[in-house]
Structure formats: structure tokens, C-alpha cells
């Protein structure tokens, strides 16, 4: 989604559009590094030195709630955000904790992976996460 479209969506849902929110949207736009809140904070503080970490947390929470970013649980204590909310999977390296996008285009229908006992459920999302050691970390050992 383009930044202007995202701003219009947030406005239509009653959110104020602040310069700090727009700066965070720009930082996230096409960001494939899957930043955590601290990464976003380090980037936005260069533009708005008075912004607080709490503001960044609040903006990220709003963006996730509104479906603009997707939260990825890398570990029990580390959360990353993905501005690409289109269907795709992730590979998470257990050594460096980098997150890599994984195309699902080669997989057969993911719906076939859902057990029959869930037939009566209204499933709204499915996450595909591979965990292991990335090539860089594997080459170091």
C-alpha cells in the first residue's frame, strides 16, 4: 500500500495524521529488513529528535491493529514488523535472528494443510515460519 493510501485509511478510521506517524510509515515503506521497534525508533529519532520510544510503540501497535504491518514473533522477547502484508512466509535464523521473506508460490494450497477438525472454524490467517540457521551463520561455523 502506498503511503498516501495508508494515510487515507488511517484518517478514515479516525486516527490523527502526525508528522511522526508519516515518518514511521516512510521508514517502513518497502522495508524488507523486518525491523523491530528499536530499529524504527533509531531511524525516526534522526528526523524527530524529541520522539519517544512510547510513541513509536503506539504507532506500531496502531499499524498492526489496522493491518498495515504484520508482527512476527522471532522469539519470546523479540518482535519484528513486516510492512508486506501480502501472503508469504518467513525464515528466522536462530543464531542472528534475521528474518527472511519466503515465497509461497511453489507450495500447493495451504488450505489443504488445515486439519478437518477445524472445518467449522472461520480461519482468518495462516503463518508459515521456518526456523533454522541462515547461510551466513552456517558458513561462519
Automatic annotation (TrEMBL):
<dbReference type="InterPro" id="IPR043135">
    <property type="entry name" value="Fur_C"/>
</dbReference>
<keyword id="KW-0862">Zinc</keyword>
<keyword id="KW-0479">Metal-binding</keyword>
<dbReference type="InterPro" id="IPR002481">
    <property type="entry name" value="FUR"/>
</dbReference>
<keyword id="KW-0805">Transcription regulation</keyword>
<keyword id="KW-0238">DNA-binding</keyword>
<dbReference type="Pfam" id="PF01475">
    <property type="entry name" value="FUR"/>
</dbReference>
<dbReference type="GO" id="GO:0000976">
    <property type="term" value="F:transcription cis-regulatory region binding"/>
</dbReference>
<feature type="binding site">
    <location>
        <position position="93"/>
    </location>
    <ligand>
        <name>Zn(2+)</name>
    </ligand>
</feature>
<dbReference type="GO" id="GO:0045892">
    <property type="term" value="P:negative regulation of DNA-templated transcription"/>
</dbReference>
<dbReference type="InterPro" id="IPR036390">
    <property type="entry name" value="WH_DNA-bd_sf"/>
</dbReference>
<feature type="binding site">
    <location>
        <position position="134"/>
    </location>
    <ligand>
        <name>Zn(2+)</name>
    </ligand>
</feature>
<protein>
    <submittedName>
        <fullName>Fe2+/Zn2+ uptake regulation protein</fullName>
    </submittedName>
</protein>
<feature type="binding site">
    <location>
        <position position="137"/>
    </location>
    <ligand>
        <name>Zn(2+)</name>
    </ligand>
</feature>
<dbReference type="GO" id="GO:0008270">
    <property type="term" value="F:zinc ion binding"/>
</dbReference>
<dbReference type="InterPro" id="IPR036388">
    <property type="entry name" value="WH-like_DNA-bd_sf"/>
</dbReference>
<dbReference type="GO" id="GO:1900376">
    <property type="term" value="P:regulation of secondary metabolite biosynthetic process"/>
</dbReference>
<comment type="similarity">
    <text>Belongs to the Fur family.</text>
</comment>
<feature type="binding site">
    <location>
        <position position="96"/>
    </location>
    <ligand>
        <name>Zn(2+)</name>
    </ligand>
</feature>
<keyword id="KW-0804">Transcription</keyword>
<dbReference type="GO" id="GO:0003700">
    <property type="term" value="F:DNA-binding transcription factor activity"/>
</dbReference>
<keyword id="KW-0678">Repressor</keyword>
